[in-house]
Amino acid sequence: MKKLSARRRHPLAAVVVLLLALAATGGLYAAFAPAGTAKADETAQSLAIEEGKKLYSVGCASCHGTGGQGTSDGPSLVGVGSAAVDFQVGTGRMPAQQPGAQVPKKKVIYSQAEIDQLAAYVASLGAGPITPTEGQYSPEGADIAKGGELFRTNCAQCHNFTGEGGALTYGKYAPNLEGVSPKHLYEAMQTGPQNMPSFPDTTMPEKEKKDIIAYVQAVNSDEADNPGGLKLGGLGPVSEGLFAWVFGLGALIAVAIWVAAHTAKAKKS
Questions:
Q1: Which of 80, 108, 128, 173 is deepest in the core (most CB within 10 A)?
Q2: Residue 124 CB neighbours (<10 A)
Q3: Is residue 189 within 8 Å of 198, Cβ to Cβ?
Q4: Stretch 213-221: mean pLDDT
Q5: In a 3-state reduction of DSSP, which class is residue 45?
Q6: Alpha-carbon distance 266 to 18, whole Å?
Q7: In this model, does residue 228 exceed pLDDT 60?
Q8: Among 75-84, 138-147, 235-244, whose mean pLDDT is lowest?
Q9: How many CB atoms lie within 10 A of CB 135?
Q10: What is the pTM of this model?
Q11: Residue 64 is assigned to a ligand binding site
Q12: 177-195: average pLDDT
């Protein structure tokens, strides 16, 4: 008893007891809390997949197959990932109204919660690009000048160098990028929808994607400085070509008529 009392009066006794209490508390938390959290997350994910499968059966299975394997009316969705679903459904391109060379953007018919459920189900069919977080696609702090260089190198040949879009072959086209959200721009680069090539992080790192998004937003913002009136390249290649053809050819015809009229007067004189 005397030895025990002596140890209790030791200056380090309180510190030892405190450390033991903290260790016991930490051990109990590690043993119970993470497992409970993981189980809750797993349950929520399972519910999302279950609800997504119901939505898929009603709105998608007729074209993409009951298990996402694809049919003659729609491609396989195995391995496209949640990012592709979030882009296609979140921009209204899917469900498609009718088959064609390219599915246009239209009014979104699903809520974001339903889109997330559809994305969870399709992602469960096979690994693919994951829906990005706000930190990944936010253009805050990005290099706009670098984004312009990257855009002109990788995107301008189809989308026009200010993102106005343009015609492609066989009824296809590169859509106008004005007003497209940063999230959907990022997902399009990730997944390569329709006629667009994909730019995964191994090809184009996250930082470069953010730079491109910042550039597209800058050149299409209401505050963009266009001292010449209509911005250069702002009408798109088809409209600009038509303008050049009509007015350019019209000017040449006017000059030819003027030359012919003055030549005839000179001969009469």
A1: 80
A2: 17
A3: yes
A4: 91
A5: helix
A6: 114
A7: no
A8: 235-244
A9: 9
A10: 0.72
A11: yes
A12: 94
Q: End-to-end alpha-carbon separation of the chain, Å?
A: 141
The predicted-structure confidence for 240-256, as pLDDT tens digits, reads as follows 677 777 888 888 899 99
The phi-psi region of residue 20 (left if phi > 0; otherwise alpha if psi is between -120 and 50; otherwise beta) is alpha
Paired with 174 in beta bridges are 166
Contact of 234 with 164, CB cutoff 8 Å: yes
Q: Can you tell me the distance from the alpha carbon of 69 to that of 78, in angstroms, rounded to the nearest whole number?
A: 6
CA 133 to chain centre: 11
For residue 50, the model assigns a pLDDT of 94
The enclosing H or E element of 258 equals helix 237-268
Using an 8 Å Cβ cutoff, are 230 and 154 in contact?
no
Domains of the chain, start order: 34-130 (1.10.760.10), 132-238 (1.10.760.10)
Q: Give backbone dihedrals phi and psi of 245, rounded to 5 degrees, phi first.
A: -65, -50
**CA angle in degrees (0–180, nearest 5) for 197-166-217:** 75
Q: Cα 223 to the chain's mean position, in Å?
A: 23
pLDDT score recorded for residue 212: 97
Could you tell me the sign of the dihedral formed by the alpha carbons of 102, 95, 197, 188, in that order?
A: positive
262 is in an annotated binding site: no
